[in-house]
Inverse folding.
């Protein structure tokens, strides 16, 4: 009797681990920006016109962020590439990123839902990334 109850409990727990509502096994991976405040790229992110962006969350707790901005009002439509890095941590589905550049101490907070990472930036809106 005990053996059967134990087996049933283990099967129930395993099924819960694999359900769609269970937290992700790992958040590490590459994410590509899909929208800013609900608008597909290219889109305005704060004062910038964002052409593309990505976040790479490494399993060692480091991350890189890359972004390409366009300035269509300037002659020749120049582009600017931004590359930043820092550390990240996860608690359940909440992601916390801290940039490590010397003169930049900025933190981002995000939420992971399946393959989607949503980051709310205080001055640049809500950015939605998809796992690549």
């Amino acid at each position: 009797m005990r053996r059967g109850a134990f087996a049933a409990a283990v099967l129930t727990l395993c099924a819960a681990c694999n359900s769609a509502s269970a937290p992700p096994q790992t958040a590490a991976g590459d994410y590509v920006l899909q929208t800013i405040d609900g608008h597909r790229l290219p889109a305005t992110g704060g004062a910038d016109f964002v052409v593309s962006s990505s976040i790479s969350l490494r399993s060692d707790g480091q991350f890189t962020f890359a972004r390409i901005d366009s300035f269509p009002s300037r002659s020749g439509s120049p582009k600017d590439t931004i590359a930043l890095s820092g550390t990240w941590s996860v608690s359940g589905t909440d992601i916390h990123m801290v940039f490590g550049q010397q003169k930049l101490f900025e933190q981002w907070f995000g939420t992971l839902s399946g393959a989607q990472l949503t980051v709310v930036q205080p001055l640049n809106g809500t950015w939605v990334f998809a796992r690549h």
Observations:
- The longest helix spans residues 2-17.
- The helical segments are 2-17.
- The beta strands are 29-36, 39-40, 43-45, 48-57, 62-70, 79-91, 94-99, 107-113, 116-121, 125-131.
